[in-house]
Amino acid sequence: MQGLQRKYGIWTATAMVIGIVIGSGVFFKADDVLKASGGSLSTALLAWLIGGSIMVVTALVFAKIATRVERVNGLVDYFEEAYGPRAGYLVAWFMTFVYYPTLVAVLAWVSANYTAGLLGLAKGVWWLAGFYLVFFFLLNIFSPVLAGRWQVSATVIKLIPLALVAVVGMVTGLVSGLTFENFAVAAGNVSGGGGLAVATLATAFAYEGWIIATSINAELKDAKRTLPKALFFGSVAVVIIYMLYYLGISGVLTNERVIAAGDGAPVEVVSLIFGRLGGTLLTVFVIVSCLGTLNGLIMGASRGMFAIASRGLGPKPEFFGAIDPRTNSTRNSAVLGFVLSASWLVVWYGNFAGWFGKFMDISELPIAFLYVIYISLYIWVMRRFTDLGTFSRYGAPLLAGAGSLYIIWGAIQKDLFLQFFLLTLVIVLAGLPFMRSQD
Predict the structure, then answer these.
(1) Fewer beta carbons under 10 A from the terminal one: N or C of the chain?
(2) At a CB cut-off of 8 Å and minimum separation 6, what does 376 contact?
(3) DSSP string, 105-153
């Protein structure tokens, strides 16, 4: 089987960490976090801080693992090393059929939603989401190098609106006193909420995606040095950017207006500061930001079945393990990734069409299942990494494990959690017959 070329460097890896994490979540989850926090800005900021701290500590643990294990697809490699090929196979199956395509579907929809808002389209959001799916999967199939360059460029571009909102918003809020008022007075138009755990779960989507950077470790130059640096420094940068951005919003809009504006809160902030043209330009930046995240997720989804096939497992391993000799892309694996993502996009549509009675949030629930996998790896680090210092071997994994349990607890309280759990279980069990080559 032909090998993948070492075509990516430190900037692409870091751009995947920052670029996938900073995407739609920071924009369309801002009001959700505040709602879950009962309209309290201090509780919402605490949720953002807890969620970010969980990500940083988790990334620190994975950075240690990445210095020792390097094969085809980071997370799968790590779990296989820890618990054997069968366990690694099941993780790869979950990532391929649930994790990657669900997040890709949501990001395609979010990108289309902002684009429709910019163009003033009342209809056609779902068709536009389908177009984005097709376009970026084709980009990754026919020019993976160009897809990597787009990832770096989109990451740089998306930092511009975040910096604008953070700096101008904080200065405005401190001068006007609105920031202090928002800390003192919670929004009065919130019923229920959900509490800190649910609010932290909402931030989990905004902080998710950094692990996908490990999916290209077989294509990274000097991966054992490059990947750990990208994981740690990229995740720290994200937390700082998010906290400053959220403070910037609170300096321009009251808590009530943030909730009322919903996904349009960042656009409204810039419109108030710079006028309608500024709001329009911000929307363009937001769309680029979302598309950068979508591309990064598709980079992972395109390699999902390849990670399975490269081990001689799964249906038709020779077919899905094939590498296009002209583009050095995992073409057949990417096509399956597209089909799965399109299928989950239909499920996401069903939420808005009322198919399920309540909202099956595939933007958050798959992430909670991933944290169960993380906990297993933390236990492995504490048991096997005997040469590490006390904090690296025990402290960081225990802190990360506590954070993971907190995220999982928040997920259990979500609507249709049990139904999604059973659906995921069925999907994973469907992959069991294809483990037979390990017998």
Answers:
(1) C
(2) 79, 82, 83
(3) HHHHHHHHHHHHHHHT-SS-HHHHHHHHHHHHHHHHHH-HHHHHHHHHH
What CATH number corresponds to the domain at position 292? 1.20.1740.10
Paired tokens of 438: 């390990």
Widest CA span in the chain? 69
Q: Would you say residue 335 has pLDDT above 90? A: yes
Radius of gyration over alpha carbons of the chain, in Å? 21
Q: Does 28 fall in a domain?
A: yes
In a domain, 3, yes or no: no
Residue 297, both tokens:
């997720």
Asked whether 25 and 198 are in contact (CB, 8 A), the reply is: no
pLDDT of residue 5: 62
Contact 251, 170 (CB under 8 A): yes
Q: How many CB atoms lie within 10 A of CB 427?
A: 15
How far apart are alpha carbons 141 and 143 in whole angstroms?
Answer: 6
CA 321 – CA 326 distance, rounded (Å)? 15
Q: Is 195 left (phi over 0), alpha (psi -120 to 50) or beta?
A: left
What residues pair up with 220 in beta bridges, in sequence order?
8
How many folded domains does the chain comprise? 1
Q: Is residue 307 part of a domain?
A: yes
Confidence bin at 296 (pLDDT 50/70/90): confident
For the record, the structure tokens of 134 come out as 């097709």
- Burial label, 151 (beta-carbon count in 10 A; 0-12, 13-18, 19+): buried
In sign, the C-alpha dihedral spanning 204, 217, 227, 156 is negative
User: Residue 119's CB: how many other CB atoms inside 10 A?
Assistant: 10
Token digits of residue 93: 């199956």
DSSP annotation of 414 reads S
Quick: pLDDT tens for 382-420: 999 998 899 989 999 999 899 889 889 888 888 899 999
On whether the CB atoms of residues 324 and 141 are closer than 8 A, the answer is yes
